[in-house]
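[job 4471] stage=fold_predict status=RUNNING
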Amino acid sequence: MNGSIRTVLGDIAGFSGAAYMHEHLILDSPLIADRFPHLLLDDVDAAVEEVAACRDRGAALMVDAMPLAAGRDVVRLAAIASRTGVHVVAATGLHHDRYYGPLHWTNRVGADQLAEEFVADLVDGVDEFDGTSPIVRRTAHRAGIVKVATSGARPDARDLRNLEAAAAASAATGAPVLTHCEGGLGGGAQVERLAAAGVPAPAIILSHVDKAHDLPYLLDLAGTGAVLELDQSLRERTEGAGSSTVRAILTLLDGGHGDRIVVGTDGARRSLWSAYGGEPGLAWLVAELPALLRREGVQEDDLQRIFHDNAARALAWRAVG
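[job 4471] inference complete, writing structure tokens
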């Protein structure tokens, strides 16, 4: 497994094409349907249509960032991967508390128990019922990354427990860690906690950090050795070179951190998907962002790193023990 990427259809040595590093292909739970209907993504056929459009423009791999018991469905993710030929990496771990609520079972257990569940998702297979039933039925589809979210610049008590659990699962298996930085903030504290618990910085992928609109902060994060996932360009596409993602990429490249950049869409809104009647569609990331970056002087070798090489390296499991 050392050096391989774990997808829902099995381990792969690599892939040819672009990586979407923070996506939501299936996002389906009663809580989301009730509180966040604009985020409800429950249609496999729509997802196949959307992912196929990305594939046709050069996408080869997508990380689905919805973790345990928060609307994830690994069986549907496997169907999307099978029907499109695009590699899909599923996440275990936990998201922000708003997708669970204070009485949810995930808020009533300790870090050790959570880590055991995360490891089972990574090694044995994701539960068909996704932790929503007293019956556990492990599928053949395994998670390939551990997700953890924090609430702001400094982690709260729930965040600290979840960081501990995510780090333990990563240290036990060699799986990389994908984080959610609320408002783009808290990346430094995440790296500090995860690294202290045994996760190497290059195995930590900090999501949404371009939301912070703070270029010195991004340079500091890149200096830790962690990978920065930038995903605001789809929403800011009309801003061109004024996009926070574009500014971040140019700043990081100028600072010598071209090997720390990956991109995604975080396209969880129905209004962004062509298949749901929205626009511009997730294919915009591979169809338009490279051309926009070229116009700003970004060279082809840097585009190769941003859209493929850095992602392939960050998603590869490391040797443990």
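[job 4471] summary: The first helix runs from residue 30 to 35.
[job 4471] exit 0
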